[in-house]
Amino acid sequence: MSSKRHIAFLTGTRADFGKIKPLIIAAHEEGCRVSVFATGMHMLPRFGSTVLEVKRTIPTDIPIISFLNQQDGDTMDVVVANTITGLSQFITEHAPDALVVHGDRPEALAGAIAGSLRNTTVVHVEGGELSGTIDGVIRHAVSKLSHIHLVANEGARDRLIQLGEHLDTIHVIGSPDLDVMLSPSLPSVHDAKSRYGISFDDYLIAIFHPVTTNLQSSALAAEQFVSALIASNRNFIIIHPNNDSGFETILEQYKRFESLPDRFRVFESLRFEHFLTLLKNAQALIGNSSAGIREAPIYGVPSIDIGDRQRGRHEGPTILPTEANEKMILAAISTSSTLDRSPELDLFGDGRSAQRFKDLISTDLLFSAPVDKVFVDLKDVM
Predict the structure, then answer these.
(1) Angle between helices 189-196 and 272-280 (to 10 degrees)
(2) pLDDT per position as a tens digit, 263-303
């Protein structure tokens, strides 16, 4: 049955592609017809044109449909609308049996809207989790528009049940990026540093994204963030923010690093596997990226979480929350070196998500949910 199925994967960022790539390869190995709809940050030169990375790292016989969904200055609602338009045309031309979306990005919301309105099975990866600010709203909205849920752990499963999703449509497979994180085939730290021209041995990784619900405060936070990094006298690998509204103010602040090239290496994007190796060997991760909540604790790497973008998510012994204040950030950087670097394992799976995904394909469970959804009351689950 699987060889007759067409599974399309939607990717809009370097991060979500790193998470769904194991599933893309798994579906291809299982004999499905597979395609990838690449849009969002992938298409923008100022974010590294990472559609090229998509093309380089999946089997060459998987078609990649590239779609430019935004221009400079477009707000997130416009990005969603543009993406729906492109996906609607894609669904008309290619008629996938299932559309796989990930997480809490605007492109995922567009995919869930387009798929549900076109009676195409929407498969949501990593629903049921907690995100801060508007991201959490988007994630739960995507879940309500989706028909199949591939979640990371039992906590996420329980939240989807609380949202009224049918138990039979929720499958705990773990977070697919653990398949990559725990792989023995990651590049060596020497190879990762050589690839990106990183000469220093000790470093922190910094990733800072805009907070779209308060752009004025976000701009001030970026200024304090950059000031603290400069004042710390430490070495940093800086990765550009995502393309949410307000990213321009962060990039403007990053120009301050240009006078300190010996301490700051700034990149539009890094290959996911190389990023993981650099993260694993970093002194700490600092900023407000979900990588500080998800990936860093699994490696036991301290993460300094600034502001409330990740509010309500996992809190662990290696995570240091702090306000967007230069002195507080500097204090957190100092404290981070004293933390126990014990990995937090089993938070989001065991590195076997791709195999569980194959099992769902082979048994046809991935396509079993009716597109005509009904809300399941908690009293009917208990």
Answers:
(1) 120
(2) 999 999 999 999 999 999 999 999 999 999 989 999 999 99
Joined tokens for residue 223: 């200024």
With cut-offs at 50, 70 and 90, classify the pLDDT of residue 40: very high
Look at residue 359 and give its three-state secondary structure.
Answer: helix
Query: Encoding tokens for residue 308?
Result: 């409330």
The tokens of 3 are what? 């060889």
Best CA proximity match to 235, nearest among 206, 276, 209 = 206
Is the CB of residue 96 less than 8 Å from the CB of residue 7?
A: yes
Rounded Cα distance, 164 and 149, in Å: 12
Q: Kindly report the pTM of this predicted structure.
A: 0.91
The neighbour count for residue 342, using CB atoms within 10 Å, is 11
Q: Give the integer Cα–Cα distance in Å for 316 and 302.
A: 10
Residue 73 identity: G
Q: In whole angstroms, give the CA distance from residue 345 to residue 326.
A: 32
Whether the pLDDT of residue 72 is over 50: the answer is yes
Give the separation between CA 370 and CA 9, rounded to whole angstroms: 20
Joined tokens for residue 271: 């290959």
CA 248/CA 236 separation, integer angstroms? 20
Q: At what angle do helices 215-231 and 247-254 cross, to 10 degrees?
A: 20
242-253: per-residue pLDDT in tens? 888 889 999 999
Distance of CA 315 to the CA centre of its chain: 18
**Mean pLDDT score, 57-71:** 95
Edge-to-edge strand order for the sheet containing 284-287? 264-267, 236-239, 204-207, 284-287, 303-306, 319-322
The residues, ordered by sequence, that sit 6+ positions from 315 with a Cβ below 8 Å of its Cβ are: 321
* Phi, psi for 264 (deg, rounded to 5): -125, 120
Stretch 115-139: mean pLDDT: 92
Supply the Cα-derived Rg of the chain in whole angstroms.
Answer: 20
Hey, what domains does the chain have and what are their CATH numbers?
2-182+350-380 (3.40.50.2000), 189-336 (3.40.50.2000)
Token pair recorded at residue 322: 């702090």
Closest CA to 74 of 106, 102, 117: 106
